[in-house]
Amino acid sequence: MFQVAKKDSYRLLSGEEISRMEAQGNTSSDWSLVRVLHGFTPENIQNSKFTGQVYLSNFNRTVKMYGGVTLNAGIYNAWIHNCAVGKNVLIHNVHGYIANYIIEDDVVVNNVNIIAVEGETTFGNGTLVEVINEGGGRKIPIYDQLSAHLAYIMVFYRHRPKLVSLLVEMVEKYTMLVKGNMGIIGRGSMITNSDSILNIKIGTAAKIDGAKKLSNGSINSTIEAPVVIGEGVIMSDFIVCSGTQITDATLVSNCFIGQGCVLGKHYSAVNSLFFANCHGFHGEACSIFAGPYTVTHHKSTLLIAGMYSFLNAGSGSNQSNHLYKLGPIHQGIMERGAKTTSDSYILWPSRIGAFTLVMGRHYKHSDTTDFPFSYLIENNDKSVLVPAVNLKSIGTVRDSQKWPKRDNRKDSNLLDLINFNLLSPYTIQKMINGQEKLQSIKEFSKEKRKWYEFEKMVIEKNALERGMYLYEMAIWKFLGNSLITRLQKKEYKNNYEIRETLKSDNLFGKGNWVDIAGLLCPFEALNQLLKSIENGETVTLEDINSSLTGLYKNYYNYEWTWAIDVLEKFTGKILAEFTADDVIAVVEKWKESVLSIDRLLYEDARKEFSMSIKTGFGIDGQNGALELDFINVRGEFEKNETVNAIKLHMQVKEELGNELISRMKKTIESNINFELHTLNKTKNSIEKCVE
After folding, report:
1. Is 348 helix (H, G, I), strand (E, B) or coil?
2. Are 268 and 303 in contact (CB under 8 A)?
3. 3-state SS, residue 215
4. Interaxial angle between packed helices 641-690 and 394-405, expressed in degrees from 0 to 180 and rounded to the nearest 10
5. Residue from 485, 268, 279, 317 nearest 402 by CA
6. What DSSP designation does 493 have?
7. Per DSSP, what are the bridge partners of residue 55?
8. Any alpha helices (H) in 96-191, and if so which ranges?
9. For 127, 160, 593, 607, which has the most beta carbons within 10 A of its beta carbon?
10. Element containing residue 66 per DSSP (H, E)
11. pLDDT at position 5
């Protein structure tokens, strides 16, 4: 029926062993169905019942429990039905039974009610999740290795039905491969104080303590990144990936939970996808696509029918998908890095641009996708757009620094491919679009006014002017970064060598870029993969994931191809005409932009140390107690880690720009000599011809 070692490693119990087993309170309806590993001794099998076909191994170690209590490995006070039990397993106090499981070596099962597999099951694989739209139309099947990027394509590319259908078929094929009537508890796992575990596949080193009910799911724990399931948790129809923790009476139904996630404090999630490093506490998720680093920590916070990534949701944040009488069919998108303040509200459908802060309540279906790094603020029931203002926010910089540091994933096989860049072709193209729109709003307004109206939003005149200025600096900062990176660590004798270095041999990069749930890439390159799937050239999930990895690894090559195209437009010169003087001009603009933005960030950071911020410190003291209390709690401005990082950044970037300018000046001198030499050679050739 099944086995955990070679067939000839097992034998029947001897008559003496059966007698010993029965003397120790053990029973079986048919001892001939019990097989034991050679070297087995019955000492550590007590007060247990064995039915169906059972394989037992050797139990030779002691197991340390909580509080320093030690128990001998073995089976005590349990009913084992149709199971294979590995070496040095401890099964202790099973109030119901364990049925149809392969229990690998060094597993501990203590004080549980029931662990069983009933009939054939796929352990959560193939579960349909009604993501984004509660009314249907975007449901996808989940599986063990689902990445944020593959899910994004299946969920959002419904305008390409053949593509989606083929991807769903691939997942269904995988689902059939894992289908079976035997569960597994992976090596080194510990299941304690839990009630009901039904049709669950458990990976290695998992820790399940106090779970209330787990049904139809996979816990894909690994030695590198164990999964922790805690007290009072109820989950059904799910997949949980490595390194994830789900604790504190959290409720999960029809969900995929990716690597390194943390759900706790009574969180509730239904029909949702969570990818790498998401955090959910206290609140509720309903039909959401939570891309990497979606974080919600507060009570009364509802995320519903939307897509998010790198999100920080404030207390009481809410969205509504019940606009008309046809039901909850509306959806929204909050692009990477968006934030919501306490008690914010957005009426779907809306689309919030990247790294935008939403404050207040908004009822007019805002679309700020071409205005990244902005504020969207409620004022007298109007949605006020403050373009680009987040570019000078120290909080935005701090966020970008903290995300890589807070990567909880320890698995060597990472499912999600995450690009953390704040400035990328994806965001810079939106800034270019936004800058053009702001200019158009300004030029085509019939009269000079303090406020401009734009697509159900209003923009204050000074905010519009400042937004154009900030976008301009950010664009040049990005272009300069790309150019300097391309030309670093090399001396150039002439303009020809510069042009050769600046060339890109990459086919893709120009045009529209997309953020497919954390992975930034040119749509043209992604589309090549999608077409290969539709044409039957890419036919396995493994090949798709390999291609997505290729897109991820080629980011900087694609980025440079895009940057060249934009540089040519912004400088008015094609690459074939670029000179050292042009490089110097770009670097000077870059220096000015970088240093200007850093100065704004520095001043924004200073606000965190203003007198008004210090209110409430030094509560009962006098004579400077406020200042001393603040310093001892928050530190001094000039010693702050982030402040010093800005100052260092300014110094390093200025030196970097000056170094490249110095090399370019040498190139100009070298190029003059090269051209004079070429001219003299030409002159001599002409003179010889004349003679």
Report:
1. coil
2. no
3. strand
4. 90
5. 279
6. S
7. 35, 84
8. 148-156, 161-178
9. 127
10. none
11. 54
**Token duo for residue 249:** 């009476």
Low-confidence ranges of the chain (pLDDT < 50): 1-3
Residue 603 burial (CB count, 10 A): 11
Terminal C-alpha separation, the chain? 101
Q: Which helix (H) or strand (E) holds 577?
A: none
Question: 607 near 613, Cβ under 8 Å?
Answer: yes
Token readout for 347 is: 């009426």
How would DSSP label each residue in 546-558?
Answer: HHHHHHHHTHHHH
Distance CA 355, CA 426 (A): 12
Report DSSP state, residue 35: E
pLDDT of residue 7: 61
The pLDDT tens digits for 186-242 are 999 999 999 999 999 999 999 999 999 999 999 999 999 999 999 999 999 999 999
What is the pTM (predicted TM-score) of this model? Answer: 0.92
Strand extents, DSSP E, 151-288: 183-185, 190-192, 196-202, 207-209, 213-219, 228-229, 234-240, 245-246, 251-257, 262-264, 268-274, 279-281, 284-286
Ramachandran angles phi, psi of 515, nearest 5°: -110, 100
pLDDT tens digit sequence for 271-304: 999 999 999 999 999 999 999 999 999 988 999 9
Helix (H, G, I), strand (E, B) or coil at 76: strand
Helix axes 461-487 and 425-444, enclosed angle (nearest 10): 150
Q: What is the pLDDT of residue 648?
A: 85
Q: What are the tokens at 469?
A: 């200025």
pLDDT of residue 1: 42
29-38 long-range contacts, CB within 8 A, separation 24+? 35/10, 35/11, 36/10, 36/11, 36/12, 37/5, 37/9, 37/10, 37/87, 38/9, 38/10, 38/11
Domain ranges within the chain, ordered by starting residue = 1-116
In degrees to the nearest 10, what's the CA dihedral of 649, 651, 653, 657?
180
